[in-house]
Design a protein that fits this description.
Layout lengths: L6 E5 L7 E6 L6 H15 L13 H18 L3 E7 L4 E4 L8 H15 L5 E6 L2 E8 L2 E7 L5 H19 L1 H10 L12 H14 L1 H5 L2 E2 L5 H15 L5 E8 L2 E7 L7 H13 L8 E5 L2 H4 L4 E9 L2 E9 L5 H17 L2 H11 L4 H4 L4 E8 L4 E3 L10 H18 L10 E5 L4 E6 L3 E7 L5 H22 L5 E2 L1
Parallel strand pairs: 2-5, 8-15, 10-19
Antiparallel strand pairs: 1-2, 3-4, 3-7, 5-6, 6-7, 9-10, 9-13, 11-12, 12-13, 14-15, 14-18, 16-17, 17-18
Helix pairs in contact: 4-6, 6-9, 8-11
Length: 483
């Protein structure tokens, strides 16, 4: 290069598999500066000798160089990127960009992973100026996230874990392993046709939806008697069906009800994948669909078969019936028709429509002016509730800033590897104060007016908890319905 040095420091004090890597560059070059310097060096080595034809006279070479520069420049403009590649270095996915134009970059990422692995260690993250680069090596695939949004390595690792789960949901872990055992250089994109849409939507949700941060799901606010009627309709028409494992009703990416076989549970991470599947696929609105899906937390090596359909043209709630029997499409289609008829008879469709139209509640409904916004998770049921974003968080910048603050508070309180295990944290900031309170029963993250006296905060928070308690039968699913 130009004589400057890039230093890589490995901290092995926490043992193999837990290393943090920092890149300390005297010129404060970014990850992409480092990549482009490598590529320029390679081009210089390939230049012809003096008696050869001048390569600059070749317009194709000039176009190639300018194209590389355009690609790198376009990547620098992004705040966050995600890459997926095989352990052989084959590109699989790139968030913002074409894999075909980034082959050398994928090769560099592969080299970084195996360079550390050769020393019997595992690379977890790199810090390069404003950029944080996280790695997740889940053989036979490598996942890399590059961000300057301020996420911690733990948060980026969570995002990469969801990306890995999505690929498993399409192929199963067993099939994925078998493919690369037979052909190490296999191009996995051949089997992931259409999955880019799912991955794009998932990565957007990871940045914008608190559900992923909390490991919980949001429930559509309904009168408990209406929710019970919906669950009862599903049980009546599905209880006698063999091999039906889960029946799930979703509306606007919120859970309306979940009915399950007695001996099985559905992990929130698997439910997130199902919600993402429905939200990413407009085709489900056109007709009943039959699709295989693997739920990694339920069984990473096998498929469930999902009957997916919207209830009716006048009610855009989506019903998923998941079975282990691949030949039950028509049986489940008939059950769905019976469910819809009963819901219509008891006016449940109208109740769902009203709840979807309302869109949620605001802090004005809560009527605690000192609290601007909050996230509340009921830990035993892995469900959460939050008001709609309103002033001063009603524009995208302020909303993203608040979500970033919630992420940092969550990192401090709960993420594995944290040095402290705190129960209550109160942070005074320039624009708002933040409170995080964790017990065995709930997690609460609240943004509070900055001028409120500290002594007045706890009474306001207790008032908020009392309001949530009074509304819990409407905001949460309190009983677990089984077949």
């Amino acid at each position: 290069m130009d004589g400057s040095a890039t230093f890589v420091e490995l901290d092995r004090s926490v043992g193999p598999g837990c290393s943090e890597v920092s890149i300390l560059d005297p010129n404060e070059s970014s990850f992409y500066d480092f990549v482009s310097d490598e590529e320029v060096t390679e081009r210089k080595q390939e230049e012809p000798c003096e008696d050869s034809e001048d390569s600059s006279d070749n317009p194709e070479d000039v176009d190639a160089v300018s194209e590389d520069e355009r690609v790198v420049r376009s990547l620098r403009e992004r705040d966050k990127l995600v890459f997926i590649l095989s352990e052989a270095g084959k590109p699989i996915y790139c968030r913002h960009g074409s894999e075909e134009k980034l082959v050398s970059l994928f090769g560099l990422m592969q080299a970084l992973v195996f360079c550390v692995q050769d020393d019997d260690d595992q690379i977890k993250s790199i810090t390069a100026g404003a950029y944080r680069i996280a790695f997740l090596n889940k053989g036979p695939l490598i996942f890399v996230a590059v961000s300057r949004r301020g996420e911690t390595p733990g948060q980026l690792a969570l995002h990469l874990g969801y990306a890995q789960s999505l690929i498993v949901s399409v192929l199963t872990a067993a099939q994925l392993k078998k493919i690369f055992e037979q052909r190490r250089n296999y191009d996995l994109r051949k089997l992931l046709g259409g999955a880019d849409r799912l991955m794009d939507n998932l990565l957007d949700g990871l940045e914008q939806d608190p559900a992923y941060l909390l490991g919980a799901v949001s429930c559509l606010a309904l009168n408990p008697s209406v929710r019970d009627s919906i669950s009862d309709a599903i049980v009546r028409h599905c209880a006698k069906l063999k091999n039906l494992v889960f029946a799930i009703l979703l509306a606007d990416s919120q859970l309306v009800t979940l009915v399950r076989m007695k001996k099985y549970m559905l992990h929130p991470a698997d439910l997130h994948l199902l919600i993402n599947l429905v939200a990413s696929s407009e085709s489900f609105k056109l007709s009943e669909s039959w699709t295989p899906i693997c739920l990694p937390r339920f069984d990473a090596n096998g498929f469930l078969h999902a009957h997916v359909s919207y209830l009716a043209d006048d009610c855009q709630a989506c019903l998923l019936l998941l079975t282990v029997d691949k030949d039950q499409f028509f049986v489940l289609s008939e059950a769905k028709q019976g469910i819809v008829q009963r819901l219509r008879r008891y006016k449940c469709l109208e109740a769902i429509n009203r709840a979807m139209k309302n869109g949620g509640y605001t802090m004005q409904d809560v009527n605690i002016p000192e609290i601007r916004h909050f996230l509340y998770k009921a830990r035993p049921t892995a469900q959460y509730t939050a008001p709609l974003f309103s002033a001063p968080y009603d524009d995208s910048y302020e909303k993203d800033r608040l979500l970033a603050l919630y992420h940092r508070m969550h990192q401090r309180m709960l993420l594995p590897g944290s040095q402290r295990h705190l129960k209550l944290v109160y942070v005074v900031g320039k624009y708002e104060c933040l409170l995080c309170w964790v017990t065995a029963f709930f997690e609460l993250y609240a943004a509070i007016e900055p001028l409120v006296e500290k002594e007045a905060v706890i009474p306001r928070v207790e008032k908020l908890l009392n309001w949530i308690k009074s509304e819990e039968s409407r905001l949460f699913i309190l009983t677990s319905t089984t077949f």
